[in-house]
Amino acid sequence: MTFYQHIQTAQTQGRRLLAILIDPDGFKVEYAFAKAYLEKIPSQTTHILVGGSTNASQTIEAVVELLKQLTVLPIILFPGDYTQITPKADAILFLSLLSGRNSEYLINQQVKGAPYIQKSRLEVIPTGYILIDGGKETAVQRVSNTLPMSQKNREAIVNTALAGQYTGKKCIYLEAGSGAMYPVSVAVVKAVREHIEIPLIVGGGIRSQKALEDAYQAGATMVVIGTAFEKDCWT
């Protein structure tokens, strides 16, 4: 079974997937640090995502190699740009920023990354990435030079997700951004879930078990948490 088939099966069967997002810029490439970090993640964790919005290209391969020594969990790339692609990982979320109109992150970065991916054995998971307003300016917003979608405009968010599905994306990722003041609302997650058939990933601003549960109950197939663990503020 491929990694995508595992995600797809989880959606069909109603199983909950949990991914921990590791930003290489804030992760020490040290055995003891990495071991301690992995030991504190929830037991229900099913995937590890590695990547960030800032330039982490110098350390991402070393981080992935270290993680592969310490865990059997799938390591999936979550690249901020094409320089963060490494064949050492298991798969890649091949992201296209559908919520913005900046061609650099809609298609140009993908074109730059394509030859590197072709030479690798990475499983490619085409993913429609939708940036949602989480109450503060995030690194994704600054780097991509795009504005997040208002949570009040659920129709536009739903239509964007549908467009992603109809253009062949295998997953939709609703992202409030790293360090968001609040997560993607239950209402938004529910609205998108009701209209798309493909797996739904939700991340950003999730700092508690309640927020995690809310995202699942609203229809998320996979929930992603990161900043809460980096700053030890998970409750």
Could you give a quick summary of the protein structure above?
By secondary structure, the protein is of the alpha/beta class. Helices cover 39% and strands 18% of the residues. It has an eight-stranded parallel beta barrel with strand order 1-2-3-4-5-6-7-8, surrounded by six helices.
Beta percentage is 15-25%
For the record, the count of structural domains works out to 1
Topology-level CATH name: TIM Barrel
**Share of helical residues:** 25-40%
Provide mean pLDDT, rounded: 93
Shape: globular
Give start-end ranges of low-pLDDT stretches: none
Radius of gyration: 16 Å
Task: Specify the biggest β-sheet.
Answer: 8 strands, parallel, barrel
Q: Distance between the terminal alpha carbons, to the nearest Å?
A: 34 Å
CATH architecture: Alpha-Beta Barrel
CATH superfamily: FMN-linked oxidoreductases
Task: Please work out how many helical segments DSSP would assign.
Answer: 9
CATH top-level class? Alpha Beta
Secondary-structure-derived class: alpha/beta
Strand order of the largest sheet: 1-2-3-4-5-6-7-8
In N-to-C order, the SSE pattern is HEHEHEEHEHHEHEHEH
How would you characterize the overall build of this protein?
The protein is of the alpha/beta class and 235 residues long. The protein has a single domain, classed as FMN-linked oxidoreductases (TIM Barrel), CATH 3.20.20. 39% of the residues lie in helices and 18% in strands. It has helices at residues 3-13, 31-39, 60-70, 103-119, 139-144, 154-166, 186-195, 209-218, 227-230, and strands at 17-22, 47-50, 75-77, 91-97, 123-131, 171-175, 200-203, 222-225. α6 runs parallel beside α7 (186-195) and α7 runs parallel beside α8. The radius of gyration is 16 Å and the shape is globular.
